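note to self — DONT lose this again. spent like an hour looking for the file last time. sequence + predicted structure for the chain T wanted, 204 res
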Amino acid sequence: MTAASPHAPDPTSRDPRARASRPADPLDRVLELVLDARTRPPATHLPKRLNGLFRELGKADPANDPDDIEDLIWALWISHPEGVAATAMANACEAMAAGAFDLAKPILDELVARYPDWPEAWNKRAILAFIGRQDEACLADIERTLQLEPRHFGAISGFAQICVRQRRPVEAKAALTIALEIDPHLRGLRELIETLDTPRHSMH
């Protein structure tokens, strides 16, 4: 993927939903999933407890601390009923935290191959691709993540960062807005949306 070039204005550039309705490039395919995130059901095999956690997280004033709810959601996303898978994920996360991305990559490659229905394995590999500025590979992994778990506010926020890098501020703002609809307690996203409204981020 390359950054958008300053050609003639795209008539759909101000309407992300119109852009998503066209035959899609990788970024537009993910955009379509993001725009439909609130209406698509998650994969049926995901832990049912997530449903209640997301309902609570979506409240302006949840009964429990939003950070605690987010932590529980991440814990459920990262968990796996097979011990060998959970151990491999823990090893990959430890390697990523240490900056040993070359060690984490083959572990995550194996996880997505053996457990293709595990959204967090795809999301973690998307993070590695983003760090390596491999946007097309990152988009492919985000796409699979959101096909399985449309509520994945982390993947949606990551997609927004790619949009920013690809000079697609309209799409970035749309993604950030939806991430906030899913989790209105994500710190910093509203400020980022405001920066996207500044002239230096406008489409030309």
